Amino acid sequence: MTIANSSGYGSTAGVFTRDITRAHRVAGELQSGYEWISGSSRHYWGSLSAE
User: Can you list the positions of beta strands (E) in the chain?
Assistant: First the structure.
């Protein structure tokens, strides 16, 4: 946790586990803006349009 929280990069984190209780506990300890649990997604900045 110390290493993860000491990074100066990014504001997302991913927790991969089958234990949802552990996932929520770990995600709560992470200092990030957003936590993914057992998955991830692409990040889109701004709006997407069909232009």
Answer: 12-15, 34-37
Question: pLDDT tens digit string along 21-35?
Answer: 998 898 888 888 777
| CB 43 within 8 Å of CB 10 | no
The CA distance from 45 to 18, in Å, is 30
User: What is the spatial distance between Cα 51 and Cα 6, in angstroms, rounded to a whole number?
Assistant: 41
- 26-46: string of b/e by CB count within 10 Å (b at 16+)? bbeebeeeebebeeeeeeeee
